């Protein structure tokens, strides 16, 4: 057992004498939300209104039927968002969204109307997730909420009540270890429940459990100091945890509800304050007595710093969920007392993102920016917005990404000021470019185009103009696409972003070839070749070297040099080294080229390299799918490589469906029905068309052409479909060119 901090020992004997057990529910203060009685009118909160209504709930903590009705609507909508995330297979983020909805509710504010059918599904998903991780307290709290939302006497409620009874009995039957270990287990359960359950009973039970846990730890420590006989290891570790984190745990039960006075009263009445860091106790007193924005900000900063510290240490003493709850409650109180304080708003905005409510973050930040925005505050704000949008897009939650981006209009208006130009990172142009790419991924080219135009207006770049050209090409305007390609060649970064220029030359070749301008197309292809050969000679990092080889492979493929292209893709795999992301991209490029060129040997070799290099599960699934398509087409028995790759496919709901389809466990129709996003629907169309082609279906070619023209243009499947259905030409290499 680690040595106790000196400040703990000095107060232990006094604490042991003055450590009464809490037996009543008298703890708390006027800061706890008063109960609102009577009939409520739940407010319907549509998605379009969610961000602004959420901000209203965050700003106003007063007790009134009107506010509680709005809170009911906001909680309902947030739980429905969580239910959608569960349905799409993103259980971890969905569970955080459920916690976010519940953290909006403070002690005394809980109402059965907050959980409708969608909310019940969200709670059920959260119960499944926390139960599988042995989190008894949260599982119990969530099950009780599910039961409360159901009609008394209904079969569904009876099932949940039976589960709760079984959980209680199981807890009694399986509690093991010494007295302190058992008290520690009771503390974890009671605290976890109290953080979610807004009832007075849950709060009192949590306080009693923490109090008993700390009291026994102090007895152990005093006995050790007197006898020098250590308790058993399990008991010693639990004592250390109680003495180091018990005071903070007690306080957080109240601070999660923004109740500093209640926290201080609990610390003083139970004696838990004697085992708390003096600095934290001082800040709690400041918030409880002075109740100023500065005092709350100082308290929130403690939780923010500890939260970051614990995130970097896998064996932290304080439960990360406890820290997140404390940060939420204290940041919210800071914001309510001074919405114009950027530091407080920033902490609250980060918590909103963490708890699956990113739509509220931009509005909270906008109000704090006010007329005194600086490059630093705007950079921080855009960083939060960009991270939130990207996080939502990674879950295929495009609606949340769009709501968050739309809510950031006021932040963008500030960041677009001319006196801030080139002083903000990430820049507004960068944020718009990211959102444009998300819209492209969704096949929403109409919204992607203006975002790209604004981005390249403010930060012209070769890659930006090339992206615009690709949008115009997919929309069927080849002339506009060629115009943007020409602008890419003249972009300010054209001399340094050499590989981006190479991509632009390759796109120009394809556009000119499609327009029947053979001579000009050949000139563009030669230019792309020169760029690739030059770039691969330049010393750079592994990612740049791998990208140069991949560009060369694409160019040589257009010349019809299949062997040279294969060698280039093999070098790209070698150059990527142990970088999983770069290796995964190189692997997919190599397998994709092999699929187009009907080269099963090269495809299998690339997939094996990816497996050995431990590329991401998603990359393995797609690589395995493409190799399986080649095996079908060539009527070649599997060698086991595809099966190894597809075993990784059960990390997300969609890759699980793809893996099941490849294994013959899911029909074409079922795969199509399982697709929930535009990109997934295009992927399903590609794979079923390719399977039909391998089976000799004459309609498969037309279906592939439809995939090739799909607006979800950045999908590799769309690019592969285009190459598979485009006329295959052959061009002569320029004279004197030495290929590696």
Break the fold down into its secondary structure elements and pairings.
Blueprint: H1 6-10, H2 12-17, H3 47-59, H4 65-87, H5 91-103, H6 117-132, H7 136-148, H8 155-174, H9 179-196, H10 200-227, H11 233-255, H12 260-270, H13 278-289, H14 293-311, H15 320-337, H16 342-354, H17 360-369, H18 375-394, H19 398-407, H20 409-415, H21 428-441, H22 445-458, H23 462-474, H24 478-489, H25 498-514, H26 518-537, H27 542-559, H28 562-576, H29 580-597, H30 600-612, H31 617-634, H32 641-646, H33 653-662, H34 668-674, H35 678-694, H36 700-708, H37 716-725
List keywords for this structure.
Serine Threonine Protein Phosphatase 5, Tetratricopeptide repeat, 0% strand, 71% helix, single chain, mainly alpha, 740 residues
Describe this structure in words.
With 740 residues, this protein is mainly alpha-helical. It has a domain of 135 residues: Serine Threonine Protein Phosphatase 5, Tetratricopeptide repeat. It is globular and about 90 Å long. The protein starts with 5 loop residues before the first helix and ends in a 15-residue tail after the last helix.
Measured between the Cα atoms of the first and last residue, the distance is 62 Å
The low-pLDDT segments are: 1-25
CATH class of the domain at 40-174: Mainly Alpha
- The CATH architecture category of the domain at 40-174 equals Alpha Horseshoe
Coarse structural class: mainly alpha
Strand content: under 5%
Enumerate how many helices there are, as a single number: 37
Q: Gyration radius, to the nearest Å?
A: 30 Å
- Which fold name is given in CATH as the topology of the domain at 40-174? Serine Threonine Protein Phosphatase 5, Tetratricopeptide repeat
Largest sheet: none
- Fraction of helical residues: over 70%
Q: What's the number of extended β-strand segments?
A: 0
């Amino acid at each position: 057992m680690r040595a106790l901090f000196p400040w703990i020992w000095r107060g232990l004997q006094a604490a042991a004498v003055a450590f009464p057990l809490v037996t009543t529910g008298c703890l708390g203060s006027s800061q706890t939300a008063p109960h609102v009685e009577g009939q409520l009118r739940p407010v319907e909160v549509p998605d379009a209104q969610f961000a602004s209504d959420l901000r209203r709930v965050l700003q106003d903590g007063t007790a009134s039927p009107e506010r509680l009705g709005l809170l009911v609507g906001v909680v309902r909508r947030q739980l429905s968002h969580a239910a959608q995330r569960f349905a799409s297979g993103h259980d971890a983020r969905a569970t955080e969204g459920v916690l976010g909805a519940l953290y909006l509710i403070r002690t005394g504010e809980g109402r059965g109307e907050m959980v409708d059918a969608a909310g019940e599904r969200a709670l059920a998903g959260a119960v499944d997730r926390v139960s599988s991780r042995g989190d008894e307290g949260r599982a119990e709290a969530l099950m009780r909420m599910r039961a409360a939302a159901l009609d008394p006497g209904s079969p569904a409620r009876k099932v949940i009540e039976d589960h709760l009874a079984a959980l209680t009995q199981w807890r009694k039957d399986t509690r093991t270890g010494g007295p302190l270990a058992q008290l520690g287990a009771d503390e974890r359960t009671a605290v976890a429940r109290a953080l979610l359950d807004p009832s007075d009973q849950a709060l009192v039970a949590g306080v009693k459990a923490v109090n008993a846990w700390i009291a026994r730890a102090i007895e152990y420590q005093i006995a050790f100091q007197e006898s020098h006989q250590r308790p058993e290891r399990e008991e010693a570790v639990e004592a250390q945890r109680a003495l180091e984190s018990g005071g903070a745990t007690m306080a957080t039960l109240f601070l999660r509800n923004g109740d500093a006075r209640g926290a201080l009263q609990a610390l003083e009445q139970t004696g838990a304050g004697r085992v708390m860091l003096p600095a934290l106790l001082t800040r709690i007193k400041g918030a409880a007595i002075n109740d100023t924005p500065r005092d709350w900000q100082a308290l929130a900063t403690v939780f923010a710093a500890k939260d970051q510290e614990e995130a970097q240490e896998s064996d932290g003493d304080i439960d990360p969920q406890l820290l997140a709850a404390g940060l939420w409650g204290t940041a919210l109180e800071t914001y309510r007392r001074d919405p114009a304080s950027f530091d407080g708003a920033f902490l609250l905005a980060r918590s909103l993102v963490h708890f699956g409510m990113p739509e509220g973050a931009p509005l909270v930040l906008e109000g704090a920016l006010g007329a005194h925005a600086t490059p630093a505050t705007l950079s921080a704000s855009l960083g939060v917005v960009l991270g939130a949008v990207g996080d939502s897009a990674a879950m295929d939650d495009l609606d949340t990404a769009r709501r968050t981006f739309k809510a950031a209009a006021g932040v963008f208006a500030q960041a677009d000021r001319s006196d801030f130009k080139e002083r903000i990172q990430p820049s507004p142009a960068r944020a718009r470019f990211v959102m444009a790419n998300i819209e492209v991924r969704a096949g929403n080219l109409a919204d992607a185009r203006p975002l790209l135009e604004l981005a390249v207006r403010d930060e012209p770049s070769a890659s930006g103009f090339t992206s615009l050209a690709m949008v115009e090409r997919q929309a069927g305007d080849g002339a506009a696409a060629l115009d943007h390609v020409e602008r890419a060649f003249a972009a300010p970064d054209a001399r340094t972003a050499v590989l981006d220029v190479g991509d632009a030359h390759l796109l120009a070749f394809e556009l000119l070839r499609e327009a029947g301008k053979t001579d000009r197309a050949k000139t563009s292809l030669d230019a792309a070749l020169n760029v690739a050969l030059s770039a691969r000679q330049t010393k750079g990092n592994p990612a740049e070297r791998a990208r140069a080889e991949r560009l060369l492979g694409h160019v040589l493929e257009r010349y019809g040099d299949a062997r040279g292209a294969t060698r280039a893709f093999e070098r790209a795999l070698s150059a990527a080294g142990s970088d999983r992301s770069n290796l995964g991209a190189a692997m997919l490029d190599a397998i994709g080229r092999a699929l187009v060129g009907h080269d099963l040997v090269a495809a299998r070799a690339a997939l094996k390299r990816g497996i050995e290099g431990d590329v991401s599960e998603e990359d393995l699934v797609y690589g395995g799918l493409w190799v399986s398509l080649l095996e079908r087409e060539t009527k070649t028995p599997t060698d086991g490589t595809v099966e190894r790759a597809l075993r990784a496919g059960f990390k997300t709901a969609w890759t699980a469906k793809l893996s099941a389809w490849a294994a013959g466990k899911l029909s074409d129709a079922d795969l199509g029905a399982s697709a929930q996003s535009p990109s997934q629907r295009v992927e399903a169309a590609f794979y079923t068309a390719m399977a039909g082609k391998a089976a000799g279906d004459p309609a498969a070619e037309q279906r592939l052409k439809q995939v090739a023209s799909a607006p979800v243009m950045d999908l590799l499947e769309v690019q592969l479909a285009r190459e598979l259905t485009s006329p295959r030409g052959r061009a002569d290499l320029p004279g004197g060119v030495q290929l590696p």
